[in-house]
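Holo prediction — iron/sulfur cluster.
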Amino acid sequence: MFLQLTRLAGHKNQLQNTLLTGTIFDVKRYAIHDGSGIRTTIFFKGCPLACLWCANPESQSYLPELTYISTECLSCGMCRQTCPNEAISLVDQKVIVAPEKCDLCGHCVENCPGNALQLMGRTVTLNGLFKEIETDRPFWDRSGGGVTLSGGEPLAQFDFILAFLNACKKKYISTAIETCLYTTLDKIKAILPVVDHVICDLKIMDSGRHKINTRVSNQMIKENMKILLVSGADVLVRMPLIPGINDDKKNLEAMGAFIESCRKGARVELLPYHRLGESKYRRMKKDYKLVHISPPSKEKMERARKVLETFDIHVLI
Amino acid sequence: MISTRLTNLKNKLVDTQPRVYAERALLVTKAYQETEGCEPCVRRAHAMEKILLNCSVIIRENELVVGAKTPTPMGSPLYPEFNSQWIEKEIDTLAQRKETSFLIDEENKKLVKEKVLPYWPGRTVYDRILENVPHESLEAVDEGLFFHYYLNRSIGHITVDYGRILNQGLTGIQTQVEAALEKNPKNIYLQSLLKIISAISGFARRYADEAEKQAESCLNETRRQELLEIARICSMVPLHPATSFREAIQSFWFFHLVLNLESNSYAISPGRFDQYINPYYQKDLDQGIISQEAAQEVINCLWIKFAELTVVKEGETAKASNTYTDFQNLNIGGLKKDGTDGVNDISYMCIEAQKELCLPQPQLSCLISTRSPREFLVKSCELTRKGTGMPAVFNADELILALMDKGKSLEDARCGGINGCVEITGQGNDNMASSGYVNLAKCLELTLNNGKSMTTGRQWGPETGTAEVLDSMEKIWTAFETQIRHQATLKHQYDQGARAAFAAVCPVLCTSLAISGCIESARDFHEGGARYNLPMMCGVGTGTVADSLGAIDWFVFKKKMMPLNRITQAMQTNYATDDTLRHMLLKKGPKFGNDNDEVDIQAVKLIKTFVKVLKDFSNDQNNPYAANMIPTTAHLPFGELTAASADGRLAAAPLSEGISPVQGMDLSGPTAVVKTMGKIDHGATAGTLLNMKFTPKTLEGADRLNKFADLIRVYFDMGGHHMQFNVVDRETLLKAQKTPEEFRSLLIRVAGYSDYFVMLSKDVQDEVISRMDHAM
Ligand code: SF4
Ligand code: SF4
């Protein structure tokens, strides 16, 4: 079961007004696949896009979400006993949460011996989050790593991440941000002085197709990327390669030409589409729409690389 | 590329079934019969002489390093003088048992039964031990409180001064013995040492003769030349100082082999191999006598010899130490005596040998210092990536501190190394007498039940209070410490009695020849002749105890969700009537290994307490005991005899191993594990063991491998002692359980050693699988 929060508007307000709290859904330690050194990646919750291939469905909504796996449930009733809002009932040994009564306080989760109830996402204070991740400092220092802000879309929690990046800068901690760039230019400009690496996505060049597959137009994304690449900041452009959606020659060529026009020799990384997130969709009772697509073969990846390499850009796989 | 010679040697080794031979037992029995009434050292010298001058001389096809314990590789002699009783009881079932089975043919069996077994009852070291130790300390084994070494194997964990054998030869040592004799002309111990020296040279001489004989009839000219060279080398060493790399390797092997024929000790370890071999290699290289390739092949041949050695163990021992390997810990890297970097060509060639051959022995240990080149660390990691569970990596800088803390001089500490699984030891000057395991989780069980076992109801410790009285963590800790101290007292009584038995009846003359202090003092290794004597006990169940105390602290005292007796009652009934509680403890309690101070502090305190308690006990040389946090595989039999615990673990389930988190509970990734373990005061112990499992993907490519190397480096920056890794995914292990035939060569790390996965018993396999994968 997956609870869609009803008091969405109220919660959103809270996010904007309280400078120093953010909502995250995971902290991954020993992140070794992205960027230099051993990194600690913070996943912020909420994204303005909704890409069909998204591997983190729990990242899409801005709010914490309560999930329940009935197979893990012991039917012990602890959750019902501890819920302060009487939001929980047990029917046929299974838990049912009344969304209109639940305020996501998390008491039931804390007391669930089966770990059947889980809260996806939690609110963190600036200090709290900083303390939590700073414990990894020896690994960053040794390996030249640092913190990566990812998501979801970290820039959607702009005030919080700006403060967070500043705090890191003060402490000589190297930072990176992974962003879809669907945001306003002033925000990009504001973070640039305090972030060391930017990793941004370019998915589809055609605006209409972009909208069909990600819910939004790519106009703003392209504008931001141009400015970013022109600025000389440390940027890595990522392209997820999704067979049948963006791996056609025309799209690849358009992407290559666009990036080259912004910065000659720009670094571009091709990421093969994968389906590892599929089970999470099931857990969250969401539909996985790309069931018919399989990950691209090595040959397909190489073919895409070849197309991109006809431009003056540096392609990594 | 591995040569045909090595491929053949390896195939033969891997294809041979472990087998028991009667020859040594027959010779030793005969020798003892001939020396009734003589001094123990005289009897021992006679027995060794009998063995060395009469055992079969075995040169296998195409090998370059010669000398073998038994006609087939992976064969074990019997050592009835230590304990013949178990042989009598188990000889008929050796081939069928679950743990490390051995074949024995009817003829050998008959010889043992008729010619060996009748002589020994009442005469073995074991009989002596039984006279010496309190009965209660033996009953405590059945309770799962202890596991004792020495009952059927000799005191072990020996690293002799191989360098001295190579540099001075036996002739040099003979001069020293003679000098000592001049001062003390009637000393029979020293006289016995002289006898042993000539027996060892005689043994090598027999190999020279055999090689010559084989050369005569050899039709292949290349091999004929090889045999002649072997004959020449064997006629020189170990009697004379080695003059070349080949001689050094052969001299080393002869002496190592002799030690293995002398006793069935645990962990006769080569120690700092690269340090004493490298000078010979460099000299030959400079003079153009040997090429790197040729030297590598010799080392590879030696690797095969290491892998050939095994010892048949008594059944219970086989459970606690469930492996064919015999803990020959070979150290590379580390520092030199003057504090400079010790990594050399031989260090890398040892890594290469293991990379090429993937054998379970020797146990390769890389001693990594801040002064080691990065190349050494990264090459160690490349070997780790091969997934053979090797090497184990050690923090050379912490090792030095730990050794100095145990009384070694700075220079001796720098020359020190690792023995057994992870135990710190001096080189050729130390009797690092590890005496077995103490079940700390069981001690906690006693604490939570007023000194009584929850499984048998027997009162094993003082009455330190019922759950109703233990109303704070401080009180629980006070009671716990009392219980640990009480059990350590009992264990100590056992140790003292057992060591006295060895000192009285079973001197180890060959060992003593190459341990500094023994000749000078004319005292045997077992009598405290070594320059250093460091007694130690191993504590088992750190993670289980930490999670148990962490859960009690959290649920009972911090959150006040339940009284302590709800937990203790549930433990008594194995959570039969309170499954909800068990899930709560298991899934919602704070877990050791996730960089959570709340619970990590319990492990830190446990180790600190164990170290402190043990310091109050000492051996006959007045050396305080050191604590060692390793289980080998004792966490499984201990687990079987331990009631359910407060962390939600069910009765009879395995305990945690080493200082590793409870299996599958390290959910925050490897950096969190490292941070957790960094809180422990490793230098105060005599060794801690940390096992981690990674999926192969995590180490793919140079970039990730470097990050993995950094992870190790950080652990050592924080003062960690040791890490070892299994790089294999769960699916592979599950598949190997189903179709063992296809996975015969799959090596994995169990405790302080690697072993073939399919050779392990099912419960050890399951336990390995249940450890957490660190995947991406
Ligand atoms: S507390 Fe957890 S296990 Fe118990 S009934 Fe509620 S959801 Fe199920
Ligand atoms: S999150 Fe809080 S309000 Fe919602 S069901 Fe759980 S306990 Fe009740």
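READOUT: The first helix of chain A runs from residue 8 to 17.
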